[in-house]
Specification:
Maltoporin, Chain A; five-stranded mixed beta sheet; 2 domains; Plug_dom_sf; 860 residues; Immunoglobulin-like; 22-stranded antiparallel barrel; 8% helix; mainly beta
Length: 860
């Protein structure tokens, strides 16, 4: 009886909403009178909405007495109407990226629609995706929605435990350019040192931008250095912030993993709480200020107790604990009818705790005898200890600019400043050379990257040249700063030389004064971009860009593209381009001594800076830009009135890729004496060491049909990707040591940046207040090599996601569901020889298992 009483208010509210509702029917057409399939019809101020069927028709039960409908579809201008009775007829005009809109990646034409781009572009409606799936952060959201995008959480990977690396088309995290509202966004200051994804790379931390602040994400799957500059070898991710006004949206989400592998009897772990708020107000004629606040708390998962064949490497293994707080702003401030100012950006504060490898109380010597562990202390930790690497990350960027029409020219001038600061701490640890008097908490230092960009874009459309010529040109001036700062003395000092005890804090030795760096550089770039409609069916595009860096020189890139409409149902498209990526300041200057665990034994490894003593001894040249050549060819179209499809094949060749080399031991005849003098057992460094070739195919097939009184949208999206290491280039001093310099194990990490295929099949059904989503994601097998030189063949895996939603009232919607419903895990391997010290490396869909979630959304 008690449960019935609790449900009564919800039933009453729902019944009241139905009692005052009215049924609205209509049809959405384009300007040519063709049905717009899958257009979204939303009753403004509520969470009530539906999509159009194969004939562009919709049937919506309104929940307010005087409903106002908002009709939108990708590639069309959004309309708002107030129905007055009878059948509603709506005609949507094709949308161009006008002065009122946000630029779509892949084209600078202000008359180019999303649907006729000569390059493949994915458009992801973040509001729709987040309302129906269990993923809460941007990386995980894209991992399961976009087949060419891959990101996994890591553990035992120092800073990468706190900042998830992500890749596009299986290339490096730093080979994808990230824009926000069309403006270059700063990268993280972190260099990824471990794991199967992002090894040796820097990248942009997408999780600093809350999903609640995002309207859509555009993914340009094509080389675009000539259009946007460095880093765009694999493509561009453009994050478009929300512009809505007079609408308050609040979400509370909670989920947890079912703990299949644990020491204890807990049923759930990794609890994930997210709460966010978004609201916008109108400013003047067509202006707005949109604000978002977001908080996310994620608890540890524990996956150390697994059915691994040869014992245990770590007592604690799983996701880190993270507290993430963000605030974002997006605004447009009209100054007159032709000019407006804009300001957007935000900040993110993150606190994290990640487990390092276990330091057991005893170890074995070279003869196999049990001895006290020189990295532990039996008085402080009789049972050994599990160090905790903590992070304190502050990330922020702000952009301010003016945009307007000056005669026939559209001019956009902006300045942006971004910063990422990563500060390490270590707890539950010790400096063994201090004995039982050692502190247990340490400041380990950190690093910071800052970026300032002044950008000018000018464009004009000449309608009388052929069927239309769009000309764009501009310039960008960028300054970057990178610094590395030391921790406290106890985090790195050896207080007992000659004792055999390990110096520095265990888990993450602190940065030393000799590691400190303050570096900067300037970059200036100019570009020219033209798009010509030779006929109404044939489009050609060309772009060229020149850039000069003060620390390594100049670069010139170019791109040509074309699209040919064979008829209304089929178009062909193709691109050819050259590209480049400048070495990051972090790759040039980062240096440290870190601890890795190989075969169960900790080893101190020197990662030398590019101009450091080991690099000089080996004749490693200064890092220079990576250069690429890429091509794509494909077709887009529709079959009948309900099915749309895009298929694009691609080729990417990258020369002089910057990689993190293998480790050279102190027994090496060439660099052994140098390593011994520095007191480290092994060393590695950054070098332009490899060339790679990638072949792949992207395909997306989608249709929307009416099923009963509801709508069923089906999407099949797939990425096939094969990366080959075609050349390894060593220095004369390392001739014959290619196997160590960049051998099969290091090459396997590069190849494993993406599975050889990923296929996503999604069914999304909506009927009145009810919605259901079922998604299958098939991950191809991944191959790595363990520390013993043996293969780790991770078999292909299929995950299943299910979500159900129901509108309890006009403003309140509840969603329940599960990600990885059947609790699928990667293949298991010996934790003593994996990269992470656990039974699997960070591959495919991750290693946490089934995730159950609930979401409550309020919209006014």
């Amino acid at each position: 009886m008690k449960h019935n009483l609790l449900l009564f208010p919800l039933v009453l509210a729902s019944s009241a909403a139905f009692a005052q509702s009215q049924t609205l029917s209509g049809q959405v057409l384009d300007t040519a009178g063709r049905p717009v399939i899958g257009a979204t019809v939303v009753e403004k101020g509520t969470n009530n909405g539906i999509g159009t069927d194969a004939n562009g028709r919709f049937l919506l039960r309104a929940r307010t007495a005087q409903p106002r409908l908002q009709i939108s579809a990708l590639g069309y201008t959004t309309q708002e109407i107030s129905p007055t009775g009878g059948t509603i007829a709506v005609q949507l005009a094709e949308a161009s990226t006008t002065l009122e809109g946000v630029q779509v990646v892949g084209s600078r034409s202000l008359n180019r629609t999303v649907t006729d781009s000569p390059s493949p572009v994915d458009i992801i409606d973040v509001q729709q995706v987040t309302a129906k799936t269990g993923q809460l952060d941007v990386n995980q959201l894209l991992q399961f929605v976009a087949p060419s995008f891959n990101s996994n959480r890591q553990t035992g990977a120092d800073g990468a435990d706190h900042t998830d690396p992500a890749t596009l088309r299986g290339l490096g995290p730093d080979q994808t350019l990230v824009l926000v509202n069309g403006k270059r966004w700063h990268q993280s200051s972190l260099v990824n040192l471990f794991g199967s994804r992002g090894r040796g790379n820097t990248g942009t931390d997408l999780n600093t931008i809350p999903a609640a602040s995002i309207e859509r994400i555009e993914i340009l799957r094509d080389g675009a250095s000539a259009q946007y500059g460095s880093d765009a070898i694999a493509g561009v991710i453009n994050i478009v912030l929300k512009t809505s006004t007079k609408e308050l949206t609040a979400n509370v989400n909670y989920g947890a993993y079912t703990a299949k592998y644990r020491f204890d009897d807990k049923t759930f772990d990794g609890g994930n709480l997210n709460a966010n708020l978004n609201y916008g107000v109108g400013v003047g004629e067509g202006g707005y200020i949109n604000l978002t606040a977001d908080f996310n708390q994620r608890e540890h998962t524990q996956r150390a107790n697994v059915p691994a064949p040869d014992g245990i490497q770590r007592r604690e293994y799983g996701d880190p604990k993270v507290y993430n707080t963000s605030a974002y702003l997006n605004s447009k401030l009209p100054l007159n009818e032709n000019i407006y100012a804009y300001v957007f950006g935000g900040f993110n504060v993150r606190r994290g705790d990640a487990y390092a490898y276990t330091r057991f109380p005893t170890s074995t010597d070279d003869d196999g005898n049990t001895i006290p562990n020189p990295r532990s202390n039996a008085t402080l930790y009789p049972n050994g200890f599990d160090p905790i690497i903590s992070s304190n990350i502050f990330d922020a960027q702000g952009v301010a600019g003016l945009r307007g029409n000056f005669g026939a020219w559209d001019v956009d001038l902006s300045n942006s400043f971004g910063s990422n600061r990563f500060h390490y701490g270590v707890r539950n640890s010790l400096n063994a050379t201090l004995g039982a008097a050692s502190p247990t908490s340490f400041d380990a230092g950190g690093f910071q990257l800052q970026q300032d960009v002044v950008n000018l874009n000018v464009s004009r459309n000449f309608k009388t040249v052929a069927q239309g010529l769009n000309l764009a040109f501009g310039s960008e001036f960028r300054t970057e700063w990178y610094s590395l700062f030391a921790g406290d003395a106890g985090s790195y000092t050896n207080y007992a030389p000659g004792s055999g005890l390990a110096a520095g804090v265990q888990g993450f030795p602190g940065f030393q004064p000799r590691n400190e760096v303050n570096a900067s550089r300037d970059n200036v770039g100019v570009y020219l971009d033209a798009e010509l409609n030779v006929t109404k069916a044939w489009l050609v595009e060309g772009a060229a860009r020149y850039e000069h860096y003060t620390d390594f020189g100049s670069n010139l890139t170019g791109k040509i593209a074309t699209r040919l409409k064979l008829n209304d149902a089929l178009s062909l498209r193709g691109t050819l381009s050259t590209g480049f990526r400048a070495p990051s300041l972090a790759q040039i200057n980062f240096n440290t001594v870190f601890t890795n665990v190989v075969g169960g034994r900790p080893v101190d490894i020197l990662l030398d800076r590019n101009d450091g003593p080991v690099s000089r001894a080996l004749g490693i040249p200064a890092l220079t830009q990576e250069r690429s050549q890429s091509a794509s060819v494909g077709f887009t179209g529709r079959a009948g009135s309900i099915l749309t499809f895009t298929v694009d094949g691609y080729y990417i060749h990258i020369k002089d890729r910057i990689v993190l080399t293998g480790t050279f031991a102190s027994t090496d005849s060439t660099i052994g004496p140098t390593l011994t003098s520095l007191g480290v057992g092994q060393a590695q460094f950054f070098a332009n060491a490899a060339s790679t070739t990638t072949w792949g195919l992207d395909a997306v097939i989608a249709n929307t049909i009416g099923v009963g009184n509801g709508r069923l949208s089906t999407t099949l999206a797939a990425n096939l990707n094969r990366l080959l290491v075609t050349n390894v280039k060593t220095t004369p001093g390392l001739a014959g040591k290619e196997e160590t310099f960049f051998g099969p194990r290091e090459q396997a990490f590069v190849k494993a940046s993406a599975p050889p295929f990923k296929i996503n099949l999604t069914f999304d059904y909506s009927l009145s207040r009810f919605g259901a989503l079922v998604r299958f994601v098939q991950f191809g097998g991944v191959k790595l090599i363990d520390y013993d030189g043996k293969p780790e063949n991770y078999g292909q895996r299929l995950t299943t996601d299910v979500a159900l939603s129901y509108a309890l009232t006009n403003q309140l919607r509840l969603s329940l569901g599960s990600s990885n419903l059947f609790n699928v895990y990667p293949s298991f391997f010996n934790p003593l020889v994996t990269e992470t010290g656990g039974a699997w490396d960070p591959v495919q869909m991750g290693s946490n298992g089934r995730f159950l979630f609930a979401k409550l959304q309020v919209k006014f």
